[in-house]
Amino acid sequence: MGRKKRLDLISQLEEKTNTAVICYITGDRENLSTRIAPDIIRVFYRHLEAIGKRERISLFLYTRGGDVLTPWRLVSLLREYCRYLIVLVPFRCYSAGTLTCLGADEIVMTRMGELSPIDPSVANVFNPKDPHHQTARIPVSVEDVISYFSLAREKAGLNHEEQLAEVFLRLSKVVHPLSLGNVHRNYLLIRSLARKLLELHIAPPKPEEAEYIIKNLSEELHAHNYMIPRREARDRIGLRVTEPSPEVEALMWGLYERYENNLKLLSPFNPAALLSDQEPQIDFEATGGIIESAKKLDTFTFEGRVARQPQAGPGMPPVCLEITRQYWKAVE
User: Fold this and answer.
1) The domain that contains 80 carries what CATH number?
2) What is the tens place of the pLDDT at every residue in 143-199?
3) Beta carbons of 32 and 288 less than 8 angstroms apart
4) Domain-located, residue 174
5) pLDDT 10s digits, 61-81
6) Are 149 and 155 in contact (CB under 8 A)?
7) Segments forming the whole domain that contains residue 239
8) β-bridge partners, 201
9) Does 262 map to a domain?
10) What is the C-alpha to C-alpha distance for residues 23 and 36, in angstroms, rounded to an integer?
11) Residue 129 pLDDT exceeds 80
């Protein structure tokens, strides 16, 4: 997977930033994506034990997001091994990735670096059913629920208790009350996590500064897929963002491109392409994510089977894909 070339870039990054570097890439390859999840904690522990306690550690992070509880556990673990924590953001670092950044003393972003809002969408058995998929549920966005009530108050002028009660009643007929309760619980959770992460800094922001950051990231941007460049993150939101030197920026982007190529992030995973006329069925192994440091390498591995379906009818896929296992594999 080109580890030798990546190690050279990691070594140069460590020298230029005077830190130990751990890279965490959740691949967003179409049809073969991964997300931040709790199963990384033990993997990171393996890397951190090999690195040992350091004054400064840098987390090189690329992600579209994932489980919102994992950043708290991950940052807490990283801080067991360092006094000063940096997150290096070469490109995308969304949602749970942005939450992770809140726990860092410094966020180093390239020109292409992007953060995102941290407002979550929640899904559980009480959510509305997806009309297009019988077994699926429609995620409910915390901000969508809040905006519904803001629309009623600010645009429709419904400010009396009786009117707002009717607004709530109408919503509860479409979205289960327990689903709405779950939305509120996650709203409180995300703000609590963000505050706790900010308090981990060597020099934590003042309470009013922390509240400003949290409100901006959870309420003020109005779209979960809003992309926050480094100047906005620093100058408008108030995050501790720094710009890398030209040498460090080139190293960060070069290392990201290595991961992008190694994980084939720009090429959709096409199971049918694995088959041939001689092999109508094949077992495969593919990599969807990487955790890497100078001494260790782990890959998130998909194992599965692809078989051609000769009798596939109209609208049916020509191949059958079965994922038999997905796990973090210690390569080194």
Assistant:
1) 3.90.226
2) 677 666 667 677 777 777 777 677 667 767 666 666 666 666 777 888 999 999 999
3) yes
4) yes
5) 999 999 989 999 999 999 999
6) no
7) 3-116+227-268+286-298
8) none
9) yes
10) 13
11) no
